[in-house]
Amino acid sequence: MNPKLRLATVWLGGCSGCHMSLLDLDEWLIDLAAHVDLVYSPIADTKIFPSAVDLALVEGAIANNEHLELIHTIRRNSRILVSLGDCAVTGNVTALRNPLGAAAPTLQQIYVDHGDPRGIIPSEPGIVPVLLDTVVPVHAVVPVDHFLPGCPPPAPRIRAMLEALLEGRTPDAQGPEMLRFG
Amino acid sequence: MAAKTLLINGTMVSAREGETILEAARDAGVKIPTLCHLDGLSDVGACRLCLVEVGGRLRPACTTTVSEGMDVHTHTDALKAYRRQIIELLFAERGHVCAVCVASGHCELQDMAVTLGMDHVRYAYLAPTCSVDISHERFGLDHNRCILCSRCVRACDEVEGVHTWDIAGRGTSARVITDMNQPWGESETCTACGKCLLACPTGALFKRGATVAEMEHAPARIAMIVESRRVRG
Amino acid sequence: MELHDLQLIARRERERRRRIRIHCCTSSGCLASQGLEIQKRLEAAVAEAGLEGEVEVVGVGCIGSCGQGPMVEIAPEGTLYEYVRPEDADAIVAAINGGECSVQRGDPLRPFFTRQFPIVRKNAGKIDPERIEEYIAAGGYRSLYRAINEMTPAEVIDEITRSGLRGRGGAGYPTGLKWSTVAKSRGERKYVVCNGDEGDPGAFMDRSVLESDPHLVLEGMCIAAYAIGADQGYIYVRGEYPFAIQRLQKAINQAKKFGLLGSQIFDSTFDFRVDIRVGAGAFVCGEETALLASIEGRRGQPRPRPPYPAESGLWGKPTLINNVETFANIASIIEHGPDWYASIGTETSRGTKVFALTGKIHNTGLIEVPMGITLREIVHQLGGGGHSGSEVKAVQTGGPSGGCIPASLFDTPVDYESLAQVGSIMGSGGMVVMDNSTNMVELAKFYMEFCKDESCGKCVPCRVGTVQIHRLLEKITAGQGSQADIDQLQELCQLLRNTSLCGLGQSAPNPVMSTLKYFTEEYEHLIER
């Protein structure tokens, strides 16, 4: 029997909708569990990204310094990296702030200009991650092996990708079932 | 009218004289991708997606008329690669966020990305500041979603006949404008006929009140209007 | 107006002339350094010295060595003064009668002048461009007379064809072939259009021709109109050339008054009117279909060809469109014959070409040289080598549409084919010289910035591709680039070259591609850091 695949799922700058869609795989998750060890995930209680990960599904864009650091760690320690969902693939809703300018003017507009009367920009160094000037998709920072668009990617789309990767096939990223953004 | 015989992807095809490669290919069941083309409107050859190889040279299928013995290739590897680059350039240009777009599910740009196999964009997102004009009582314009195909400009000029729309500025700063670049609601020429909405391939022009995935365009109605006018004489 | 009238005007003009003429350059370059003030002071000095009977001060067009301007020449003896200041006027006038004069003298026998072959610039710096009489005295409008009275339109086209003249706007399309195509195209009306929308950074050939000898261009257009059967012409000049526009308008008015433009020219049945159209600052309007759209009052953006303007141009009518310099060659070809013209230059590129020499070169200015001359001769003999002795690294021809040619290829002859072979183009005549202090990646970035700003925005590859290429070059010059960025750069360059709608986008990658080819190490140096 093949050793179990070490699977990580990561939640960066996104809404966790992609993870919800993953959970929408319902009973197939039980089949999946037979083939993978979930070594890191927002739904598992691991704080440190482990080494020797076979497959990392990354949800969300790179929006702050924590994401930036983590994505490099993920890439170093993962054999296959998949951008899961539109935020990871394009920046999507997370990147809607980019036209407002760099981090400082963005925070100024959100918290002061259009914010409540007290108008305080939150700042807790070491606790609240620092925003990057530009939100970028994952592949703008590290090489990505496969892309799974969708906001969120429908559960069958995630399953098709996972099945291919579990069988050691290259996923067939063609057609509206696999590709549609949004 | 004389008929012409030409080769499309190695198959002999007949076409009417004066017909474009695009029309001849469609009759022969060969689908060439387009965005700025719309049946019923004049062609401008702007999006470059319909480029085909004719005797070793690239020509826009929408503005090139057929000729006898023409050897056309519509889906060479080079053409597929160029089309993929072009669609990526379009997605990188403005804020095309399908997830929050009124036209999601009914958008030619979104569909084209699927057709051309775009799973991600290799280019940097330009993230320009684009305004939204909702000064018109019934319609709205979101420049974030505009691809400058000029179909609204041509529908307004050629079908409605008022030329409310045009394009101002140049390069990536170019924007569709109404009248003398005033808010749409203050346009003196706009008849609020909505033909621009019919023609728009994306969510750039929308009915006010439509929310995500609710805006359905009806580009085929432009051709219908033009055709019925022609038949009536 | 008849031939003897022309001769009479010429004779009167020669009789009117003083023995000595002080030629004072009043082209844009010298005007910007007090050229008009110098002319006024010289006139005052002549009056004060009581020499009005034998000396006259004449404002002339561009003398050529713009880098040494303001220029003043004493004719006919040929003394040249450089870097003239208004206060030098008295000394210059005194020197005519043997007085002391410490103003810097130029050597009219240096290769910059002697290696030139003036056809287009034959009158530049010699006649007052604002007086038609001077042009007529220099033999002007004789070719037009000959064409109308002694030749059929077909014979005119035949002479132009046999001369081997090719379009001087850059692409080098055979002029005779173009004329004959328009002549054969059916249309109840035809137009002649002169493209004076010169926009390449560092190029000022057309401006100089229009400022120095506007009648030469008008005569060429008029002959063309006769040959193809047009009765209306337009000169499209960029709005940034106010002096050229002013002189051209003056020339048109004078030519009309003399019966050389308008109805029944030379008392024939041939009518031809010319109007000026002023560009509003868009580089892309130099592209012929965009230029025609602009004349029609529409947004100046290109459309796919075919149909070519020769078949369907202004308002859908057959239209001949040539560049300023092309038209400026016509009168001389009719005057001296096609065989004479064809004897100049090379087998495939006949005649001469005007270049604007700029950049890190000793002699900045305008030159007209026979085709086939090598880049080495231009840079080192006419140009006098690098600026203050620096080592010349490359020349850039054709502006944002052209490429950089490294010094190792300076034995390349200047003709359409050879320049294309080394990855550049003849272009309209901009020639920018770079020395070792020039960073070639920065240079490529400069041209790409120009193209992205000037892209009309109609087609996607040019509109967005130029911006993406520019961003990659910014990243690379900031030391943040990688080999992947260079690969993407090359891929985008291929896209633009092969899929853009018009020449602007198709040629925009040339500065990048040529520097990537010849100066790879400069890119590699930046990505290694």
Helix and strand composition category of chain C: alpha/beta
Rg of chain B, rounded, reads: 18 Å
| Overall helicity of chain C | 40-55%
Taking all Cα atoms into account, the compactness measure Rg of chain C is 24 Å
CATH class of the largest domain in chain B: Alpha Beta
Count of runs of 4 or more consecutive helical residues of chain C: 23
Note the total helix count of chain B.
6
Most residues in contact: chain pair: B-C, 33 and 30 residues
**Beta-strand content estimate of chain C:** 5-15%
CATH level-two architecture of the largest domain in chain B: 2-Layer Sandwich
Summarize the helix and strand pattern of chain B as letters.
Answer: EEHEEEHHEEHEEHEH
Q: Give me the CATH fold name of the largest domain in chain C.
A: Rossmann fold
Spatial strand sequence of the major β-sheet of chain B = 2-1-5-3-4
Tally of distinct domains of chain B: 2
The residue-averaged pLDDT of chain C reads: 96
- According to CATH, what is the class of the largest domain in chain C? Alpha Beta
- Shape type of chain C: globular
Which topology of the largest domain in chain B does CATH recognise?
A: Alpha-Beta Plaits
Q: Explain this structure to me?
A:
- The complex is a heterotrimer of chains A (182), B (233) and C (529).
- Chain A has 182 residues and is α/β, with parallel strands linked by helices.
- Chain A has helices spanning 17-23, 28-35, 65-77, 86-90, 103-113, 155-166, 175-179; strands spanning 5-11, 36-40, 53-59, 62-64, 78-84, 131-136, 146-148.
- Chain A is globular, with a radius of gyration of 17 Å.
- The model of chain A has no long low-confidence stretch (mean pLDDT 95).
- Chain B contains 6 helices and 10 strands, in the order ββαβββααββαββαβα.
- Chain B has 233 residues and is α+β, with helices and mostly antiparallel strands.
- Chain B has helices at residues 21-27, 77-93, 108-115, 151-160, 195-199, 220-232, and strands at 3-8, 11-16, 51-54, 57-60, 71-73, 132-133, 139-142, 165-168, 175-178, 205-207.
- With 529 residues, chain C is α/β, with parallel strands linked by helices.
- Chain C folds into 4 domains: 9-108, Glutaredoxin (3-Layer(aba) Sandwich), CATH 3.40.30; 140-341, Rossmann fold (3-Layer(aba) Sandwich), CATH 3.40.50.11540; 352-435, Ubiquitin-like (UB roll) (Roll); 442-528, NADH-ubiquinone oxidoreductase 51kDa subunit, iron-sulphur binding domain (de novo design (two linked rop proteins), Up-down Bundle), CATH 1.20.1440.230.
- Chain C has 23 helices and 14 strands.
- The longest helix of chain C is centred in the C-terminal third of the chain and has 18 residues, at 460-477.
- Chains in contact: A-B, B-C.
- The interface between B and C is medium-sized, with 33 and 30 residues.
